[in-house]
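Case study 2.
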Amino acid sequence: MIQPRAVDASAIDASRIDAFELASARLLMRPLTSAYLAEMVDLYRDPEVTRFLAPLDEPGHRRRLEESERSWATCGYGRAAVHERSSGAFLGRTGLQYWPEFEEVEVGWAFRREVWGRGYATEAARAWIEWGFDHLDVPYLTANIHPENTASLAVARRLGMEALREDVFHEMPSIVHARFRDSRA
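Prediction:
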């Protein structure tokens, strides 16, 4: 499968990815670019945040942010920074990521520990699922979740996702959950 591109050419102006914003009731989500290096390094310093994520050092974050910028520029979507609308505070990351090894588009999330339990992951992921089905020609969107990550498993349930298969993701066990296009509420 070729990496899906946004089907609505007007959805993203690839030359101006910084102008893109996806909003929900409490959140603003913007393309994750190199400008977020300090925020991402800080987010990943918390061992509880990274307990189920692949560890990244500063050069690893630089590479990931460059990958995100390329994805936005070439496909019209990618990882996104999450900000609280009321304060502008950086809360974490979300967005859509194409994984060629699975030939799937994943909705992902990681938030600062101090904002856990407020429904931000569900709200952000729900907005990206809606955007993904509106702009990408894919039959489903996935979430790769470690089997012991009970909080993210609960988010997947709230999003109407169902377990698709067991897999290995970033050298860790994963339950791949999917939200199918035809199951949209």
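The two ends are 27 Å apart (CA to CA).
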